[in-house]
Structure formats: structure tokens, C-alpha cells
Amino acid sequence: MSANQARRRDSLGTSLKDNSLTVLEEFRHHPLDTGVDCTRLVQIHAARNEDDPLACDLVHVAFGARPKFEALSYRWGDNDDQKTILVDGKRFGVGKNLWDALHFLRGRAENTPYWIDALCINQRDTEERNRQLRMMGHIYFRASTVVVWLGRKYLQFQSDIEESQLVRSPSTTKAEPSAPSTDGQDQAHNAVPGEGSSEREMVKELCADGYWNRLWIIQEIVQARQIKVCFGKLAMTWAHFTHLVTMHNPDGGGPLRLDRHRKERYNGSHTLQKLLGDHEAAECKEPKDKIYGLVGLAADAHGFPMDYNKSLIEIWTDTMEFMNGRGLLLESELVEFGKLVKRLLMGTQCGPLQQALRPYQPEKDPTLVIEDDGRNPKVFEQSAFLLGYVSHVGPSTTESIASLQKLDEWAGEVQKIWQEFEKITQGV
């Protein structure tokens, strides 16, 4: 830490013991340079005491400078439970779970810069949010480590657990976790201590954690080169964590499901169509993220249009036209895929008004007739069979009442249609 940073931290700590954080000016993000691929990183200030205010700095970095950083993966939690931290000496509101994560990180790795979405993205700037979310996959891939924060609540299980007592997996390499060893020494080392202990209850709670159901963490976990899992007071590698889970809860859910996705990331199975189908039940607060949250992970979704200003029906249209224009859908899959995307975006309770609702912007009337040159994504090819045709249009209600002749003509036409129907059904 520089001398200036230390002096500023000391002055902040002294002043805030006597004054509320609310007296400070609210933090506002400085705009990012739109001419280069760049982002912000968080530098957490060290603290002498546990109750010192959480303070950090935001720095702008260009990807071309090859910055070294770690990326945080966590649940945002309830927005109603807000805590205040200091960013560049000004107050900034964060959720309780992120506040706990920052406390944990502050005591673990001084001078480590982090990418944290709630801080590094100006959530009030939709255009910046669109640009940064397109980079999410690259950010988590370029991070030296993705830090998974599962929460402070696991302290309740850890009063009688030391990190050295937990089930351990064999040593791992930096690239990928190795398969469990089978020699006698490792088997003894991997033995499960205290089958009825707090450790087993803790793992049960870990596997049921709502974190694993979040949609965004699919991309964050799968893209990561290395993962550190933190919960309560403990931290361990992904390999150790998944081995711990397997020893206590080998049913394949939660983290083990994501571990399988990590192993499949290079076999070409991560298509947008498959990802949307596989993760239909994944949870997110923003319906648009049901699509946008998986685009960065899909091998065939480069160039997908992401725009949070668009309505749900516009995003449905974008998705269908993108898939159709790239030839990513078979003709037989069009209808079912359209239904899937509609369910993801709108569920079953969303009415037409909610689907189309967005800030009004005047625009030209769309062309009703589309010329198809074989490459227009707005033209969907679908096989069809002629089941019938309109042979006659009957009179209106007013005409039927006023003109008996028109009514008789309509009755005659109905009789002709009925006779034709009988011939067909009787095979004549």
C-alpha cells in the first residue's frame, strides 16, 4: 500500500468513528473509454481492525495491458438488505452478501485486484452495462482465479472444524484437477472423519445452496481457469471442494453438475440451443438474463445482439432471427425452440402488454412483405400441408337480418360444403 493510501485510510477511519457514512458524498462511476476494450478493477484497502470501514479504490484498466486480477462469483442477495462501503472515499451501497465477501477478501489477500460486477459495472448506465456484459465470458476466463463466495452462514458449522480436518482430494495441477489417486496413502488421507460430524451437515447445506441455481454462475464457473471456493472461514481449490462434496453427497447435483459442464467445455456441446434447454430452470432476477447470461458461454453465439433497452418480445425476436440467420435450427425444431425461448423470457404468466413493454420510441412502420433471397433471418422456412381453403365468405350480421336472399345464399353454400365433407369422410 502506498503512503498516500495509508494516510487516506487512517484519516477515513478516524473521521468515520465519529460520523456516519451517510454524511459522505455518494460515489459516481467515471465513464469508461469506449474506444478500447477495458473495465474497472477493485483494490480493497487493508484494515488494522475487523470493524474498520470497508474501503476500496476503483481503477480503470485496458485488456491490452494484460492486467492480473481475480474475479468474484457470488449471489447478489436481497437488495433491501443494503450495507455501505467506501469507494474512492465516497459512500456506495452493496448487498449484505457482497459486504461479507469483501470482509473475507480483505483479510485474505492484500493488494489483489478483483473484478466484481456490482462495483466494476455502472449499473445505472445501460449502454455500459450492455458492453461489459458482452465481455463477461472473457473476464472470467482471463482472471487468474475465480473466487466463489458461498457466504458467511457456514461459520455455524465450522466452530469445531479445522481446514486440515476436511476431506482432501489429491494434489492438483494449475491447469485442471487431477483424478483421485487410488494408492493406499491417499485413501487413508481421504478418509471421512466423524461421519456424524458438523462436516457432513455443512456439505449437505453447501450442496443445497441457492448459489448453484443462479444462471450467471454457469458462465462464471465454466469459463474459469482456476477456482477458489470460500465459505465461512474456509477456502479451498475447486478440486478439493468437489472431492469433499463427492465423499459426502455423491448424487451429482449442485456443484458436481457444474463440474461436468467444466469438463465438457471443449467438446463442442456448449451451443446456445443446448445451453438454453439444459438451464431452463436456472434462476435470475432479470428475465432478459435467461438469454444474455448464457450467450458468453455458447460456442456459436458470437455477435449475438445484447441490449437491455429492448423489450422481452424484441429479445425473443432477436434470438429467433439470430438462430435462423446462422442456420443453427432445423426446420423441425423451430416451433419447440420458439416456445422454449418464450418460456425463458416471459414464463407462463406474462401477458402481451408485459412482453412488449418498453420506453416508447417513435419508429418507422415495418415492412409487411419481406423479399426472401435465401439469407434473410426474418424468413423462417416451415413445411406445411394444405388442409382446406376459404371457398365463400358469408354475409355480416346486419346483412343477414336485412336481406333474406343473402341469408338463403349463405345457407346454400354451407350445404355444398357439408356435401363435400360427407363425400370425403365416406371415401367417395
From TrEMBL:
Heterokaryon incompatibility domain span: 69-220
Record field: compositional bias (Polar residues): 166-188
A Pfam match: HET
Top-level taxon: Eukaryota
Annotated segments matching region Disordered: 166-199
PANTHER family recorded: ANKYRIN REPEAT DOMAIN-CONTAINING PROTEIN 39 HOMOLOG-RELATED, HETEROKARYON INCOMPATIBILITY DOMAIN-CONTAINING PROTEIN
Protein name, per record: Heterokaryon incompatibility domain-containing protein
